[in-house]
Design brief:
This protein is an alpha+beta fold. It has 3 domains: about 5-50, no CATH class; about 55-110, no CATH class; about 120-195, no CATH class. It has 7 helices and 14 strands. The strands form 6 sheets. Strands 1-2-3 form a 3-stranded antiparallel sheet.
Length: about 200
C-alpha cells in the first residue's frame, strides 16, 4: 500500500509528489509529464492495480483509499504517527473516522481514472511504415538539421545513409530520397495538425 519504491521509480519514470492522490510522471527520455494516480506502480513497464475485494480504508464519508494519513489527531488532542502502527489499533481507527474495508469496482474506477488522450504533439507523427516521429520543437529541429546536412551531402555526391531515431528509440536507416519523402509528409502533417487547432 506504500508509494513506489526506488527500484520501481528507476525503471522508466520518476514520480514527483503533487496534490494528494496524484503523481506526475516524467519520461526521462522525452521530458514529457503525465498525471497518474499515486497508487499506480511502474513495474517493468506494467501498471499494477489492486483487484476488487483488495484491502482498503474508508474515511468518514465512505471514500476508499489505499493509504492512511501519516498523522492523525484523536478527540483528546493527542496525535498518532506512522499508520503502519496506529492502523492496528481499532480504537484509534474508530476515533479518527477510518474503517477497514475492501475495494469495489466503483472504488477502483475512482482511484484509477482513464488517462487523458495524448495531445497531437505528444502522439507524434506516424509514418507509412508504422513508426512514430516526435513533433516537439526539439524533434523538428533535429530532423530539419539532419535533412539539411543530408541534402548538402547529396549535392556533393556523397551517398551517406540517414539514420532517424523514432519515438520508441529504434533507429531507421534511410536513403536521402526516402528521407526527403518522409520530411515532406512529416512537415505537411504537422502543419495540418497545427492549423487544424488540434491540442
Amino acid at each position: 500500500m506504500g508509494k513506489p519504491n526506488a527500484v520501481e521509480m528507476t525503471i522508466a519514470h520518476l514520480p514527483i509528489p503533487q496534490k494528494r492522490g496524484w503523481w506526475h510522471q516524467i519520461d526521462l527520455r522525452r521530458g514529457i509529464r503525465r498525471r497518474r494516480p499515486a497508487h499506480r506502480r511502474i513495474m517493468e513497464g506494467a501498471v499494477v492495480m489492486p483487484a476488487v475485494g483488495a484491502d482498503c480504508y474508508r474515511d468518514a464519508s465512505g471514500v476508499a483509499t489505499l493509504e492512511l494519513p501519516f498523522r492523525v489527531t484523536l478527540p483528546d488532542g493527542s496525535t498518532r504517527t506512522d499508520p503502519t502502527q496506529w492502523s492496528e489499533d481499532a480504537d484509534v481507527l474508530a476515533a479518527t473516522g477510518w474503517t477497514r474495508s475492501t475495494l469495489t469496482q466503483a472504488d477502483i474506477d475512482l482511484l484509477y481514472p482513464p488517462a487523458p488522450p495524448l495531445s497531437w504533439l505528444d502522439a507524434g507523427y506516424e509514418t507509412a511504415e508504422g513508426w512514430r516521429l516526435g513533433w516537439q520543437a526539439d524533434d523538428v529541429a533535429l530532423l530539419t538539421g539532419l535533412y539539411v546536412l543530408a541534402a548538402r551531402a547529396n549535392q556533393l555526391g556523397v551517398q551517406q545513409p540517414c539514420v532517424v531515431t523514432d519515438m520508441a528509440g529504434e533507429r531507421h536507416t534511410l536513403t536521402f530520397a526516402e528521407l526527403e519523402t518522409l520530411m515532406l509528409a512529416y512537415g505537411a502533417a504537422r502543419a495540418a495538425a497545427s492549423a487544424g487547432g488540434d491540442t
